[in-house]
UniProtKB/TrEMBL annotation:
Quaternary assembly: Monomer.
Protein name in UniProt: 3-phosphoshikimate 1-carboxyvinyltransferase
Gene Ontology CC terms: cytoplasm
Superkingdom in the source lineage: Bacteria
Lineage summary: Bacteria, Pseudomonadati, Pseudomonadota, Alphaproteobacteria, Rhodobacterales
Catalysed reaction equations from the record: 3-phosphoshikimate + phosphoenolpyruvate = 5-O-(1-carboxyvinyl)-3-phosphoshikimate + phosphate
Gene: aroA
Domain Enolpyruvate transferase: residue ranges: 14-436
Keywords for the protein's UniProt record, in alphabetical order: Amino-acid biosynthesis, Aromatic amino acid biosynthesis, Cytoplasm, Transferase
Pathway listed: Metabolic intermediate biosynthesis; chorismate biosynthesis; chorismate from D-erythrose 4-phosphate and phosphoenolpyruvate: step 6/7
Keyword Acetylation: no
PROSITE patterns: EPSP_SYNTHASE_1, EPSP_SYNTHASE_2
Amino acid sequence: MSAGETRQPMTARAGAALAGTAEIPGDKSVSHRALILGALAVGETRISGLLEGEDVLRTAEAMRAFGAEVTRDGPGRWRVHGVGVGGFAEPDRVIDCGNSGTGVRLVMGAMATSPIAATFTGDASLVGRPMARVTDPLALFGAEAVGRAGGRLPMTVVGAREPVPVRYTLPVPSAQVKSAVLLAGLNAPGRTVVTEAEATRDHTERMLAGFGAEVAVEDGAEGRVITLTGQPELSAQTLAVPRDPSSAAFPVCAALIAEGSEVRVPGIGLNPTRAGLYETLREMGADLAFEDRRDEGGEPVADLVARFSPGLRGVEVPPERAAAMIDEYPVLAAVAACAEGATVMRGVGELRVKESDRIAAMAEGLRACGVPVEEGEDWWIVHGRGAGGVAGGATVASRLDHRIAMSFLVLGLAAQAPVTVDDAAPIATSFPDFLPLMRGLGAGIAAEPVAA
Ligand code: S3P
């Protein structure tokens, strides 16, 4: 079943303390990149801990369509036999990326400097999302894209026959755009240079270097400048995917707001370009401990222990932290609803073009749960009700957005009356075992029977 085909309502109710250890699945961002770079390397890349969510499975399928051999050996254990940089074949079918903005944008980048054409599509959420932010820089390499009005999917990209390297400054803080440009730069001769004013997640740069590409990263007056030397030979790697800090955020935040809880989440990726939520939670007064900080597979990780934190206070989140926690604002808003005072989030216009308009989706659901929210184009303020102060008792729309669904289920664990999400099916895109994992910790979350 893919997200959106069958509605799966789910309800969360307060009452139980969460306790135990949460084994979080692999990082979604790293998983996409491992498959794509594995497909562009020479030889066989072995991946462990791959996230087997729908988004990543779509990227695996896409890599097969471009000619790579992709094999599943066991849970999270995959092999990719790559075709080498410039070796992509033209797909004989439409590439359906499902719900995944990362999948479609990175794959477009990876094929845009090969002399092949590919047609991309996605689900009702993805076909509404902007693609010009990627196809504009890909045009500088010589690629052409024809899609629907406003640069929407379905869209056909014709790769450049004679690609030229590009110098590009990101107009929006987006790791997807940065990564699409770098992946396109792989098959252009000479140096491709990307500048970003704000540091976004750097998994692509790290992994490119790991596969043997020449990548230099410098901090300059205009921000981070990444220089990639094109047409390297990438050599196959053995990769361990760290556990996803964005998925860990849900049980961690649930533990902070559900009375009496204590949850341990081992081996969470804490790349500084991803860890902004945890800093913000600490500023709010969260009882969070980071134990055994270490490096795994080129990424910093630690074991997190989160305990019920009745004295949470609203904070002003620094706008310069937005990129390092862009996917965590929805669940932060659930925590903010249970804090005393206002949580102010500015400089977050990108939230409006995610799997859903996340400011609108959260504001609507929070208001229905008795939490006042103010919003503007690129800011929002959640007025917290304090511990035990959120009324709940509403059914909220998840809008084909996994993180909206999980955020309201977390909120329901601390609300006075149950919170129902109209459709929890999208959770399978990033966190297929969310329900058994949360129930294993004792959370009162249950799928509602669906009328036949
Ligand atoms: C991602 C980048 C972010 C993030 C998404 C994953 C990535 O999107 O929201 O979930 O893996 O590069 P943007 O690059 O559009 O900010």
